[in-house]
Amino acid sequence: MPERNLEALFNPGTVAVIGASATPGKVGHSILSNLVEAGFQGKIFPVNPKGGEMLGLPVVPSIAELPSPLDLAVVSIPPRHVVDAVRQLAERKVRAVIVITAGFKETGREGYYLEQELTSIARENNIALLGPNCLGLNNTACGLNASFAAGQPPRGNIAFFSQSGALCTAILDWALGENIGFSKFISLGNKAVLDESDMLEYLRDDPDTDVIIGYMESLDDGARFIRVAREVTARKPVIVIKSGTTAAGAKAASSHTGAMAGSEQAYAAAFSQAGVMRAADVATLFNLAQAFSRQPLPAGPNLAIITNSGGPGIMAADVCEKSALLMSPLTASTVERMKTFLPPFASLYNPIDIIGDADAVRYRQTLEAVAADELVNAILVLLTPTASAQIVETAQAVADVAATCDKPIFACFMGQKRVAPGRELLLEAGVPCYGFPEPAIASVEAMYRHYVWKNSPAPVEVCYRSDRGRAERLIASARRSGCVEIVEFQAQELLRAYELPVPPTTLARTSDEAVAAAEQIGYPVVVKIASPQISHKSDVGGVRVGLADAQAVRAAFMDVTSRAQRLRKDAFISGCLVQAMAPKGAKEVIVGFKRDPQFGPLIMFGLGGIYVEVLKDIAFRLAPLTLNDAHVMIREIRSYPLLRGVRGEPPVDFKAIEDILLTMSQLALDFPDIYEAEFNPILVSHDGATVADVRVTLCTHAE
């Protein structure tokens, strides 16, 4: 496999530059110059038909004259010649290739087929191919700068990958200004062979990388990304910016699930289930990267705030209150210790206000006392530039304590001009320093969430008993009859195959049959229209509930069928379903899934009935669901307190809902032929749940 040659891509002993140029300003010259200036210790072979010498290196006139085998080739020639060049490189047994050249699938049909040919050659010859249409890569650990980017990033422990080359150049320039170091800097380009998952697999075991950050636009194999990312985040933090997740151009869907389960929901679920942190912007991306790369993880949620001003301290406490963090209590011994050196009017409780005239000594003493407190997991030091503030000296005190402390310490020096020297000192000492409390606390919270993720038990997947053959026969029958949608009176057979709870239900073709069914089931009952063409029954007034006698059932049957025939002249009316009423006080919830093209089945949960699209109070996860996924989904919707019970109501049977969620997940994985499915409503009470309505949509050939 090409990914097995990633070591040759990142740590080559020999590098050939195809299209090397002696003319400054040309891409081929920039690549060669960067390789030389970065101090690469391996052999460099410029390749150009003119021969001669470039930057003190002898030029090889053709690819055929390169040594064999060859570790890495960087290709920067016109796109029409790239495929032949890579084919010739394959003959020289090249292990890795970076194609800088643009003009492939991003340009249209002709470029697409050119890229397909390039991909085939790389895969057939096990070549680790990066690009095309990329900036290149940089491995600071071995002095490899195989890119045409301007500037050499300093060495650090942060690895960065990006699908956008233009963003790479902007971030690199910004990082150079902020003196942020990298272990690896990778431009993925069109991802003809190597993609984000390959980079994560390599960086997982890279000893020079402690933090992985990236910019993503799309994923071709979402399931693989989740699998790989979950392995990586168990060891290292992964933080990404993800763009391009709007619903524009999304396929219209018939179900509530399909209408709301878009690309954004799929990516959010994928990141959550894989432990990947998502940054909203570049500033947040690097705030988090610096925090993770320079400070230990907090071993708990307790944050202590030290400030020389009450207002900012209260602001920080308010932000903390809205996060997953807690304002840490202090032990009695810590409070007594602080009384020995703080003024009598200082606030000795969190946030700890050491008063506006605090000097560096007071900051140091307070920080040492709080750092030693066993109840404190992380510390934020706030400073406002009062007349008495010793900015540089205080920064040095914070840096000194942080150097010997096993808890993360963050600083927030508010202001700009006066505090700049202090901020610079802290950043050089490895203490993240912010201008405002919000990003500081967001960084602490992200680190705490990652600590929880790393220390969580392994996910437990559950497999429920099912009669898969029975379900296959139902779907095959629907296919033979030309149906794409399987509605309730047919789909109930699918529910029974998976042993899902369904209320007693009978299909009645006449009003007399409806009355007989109601008397057998027992009053009160529900009457629903039964038609393969009518999936949203409420749209045609096709449901009547609480029918308590034969006369009510007969009237409901006649009214529902005649109304449906009048409003949906295209529909074949099979009759009505007569169904047992839900237990009194039952709540309505919805469970559904839609098949996402990148990630597979996207499972949803929320309040059910007709209000689901109005309230949009929904949780999403990707199949396969684990026990914890099902547990958390139910509890993360805003309406969860209604299910837990209000004003003396008993809580619903949460285990019954979890069982249905896990069964839906299994159904979605068992049958790739199902595009979307929905159980709505599920009627759940304190002692069980029943699936009162179901709809299943099969994939068309275009999907």
TrEMBL record:
SMART domains: CoA_binding. InterPro entries: Acyl-CoA_Synth/Transferase, ATP-grasp, ATP_grasp_subdomain_1, CoA-bd, Ligase_CoA_dom, NAD(P)-bd_dom_sf, Succ_CoA_lig_flav_dom, Succinyl-CoA_synth-like. PROSITE patterns: ATP_GRASP. GO terms for molecular function: acetate-CoA ligase (ADP-forming) activity; ATP binding; metal ion binding; transferase activity. Keywords: ATP-binding, Ligase, Nucleotide-binding, Transferase. Residues 492-528 form the ATP-grasp domain. It comes from the Bacteria. Pfam families: ATP-grasp_5, CoA_binding_2, Ligase_CoA_2, Succ_CoA_lig. In the N-terminal section; belongs to the acetate CoA ligase alpha subunit family. This is Acetyltransferase.
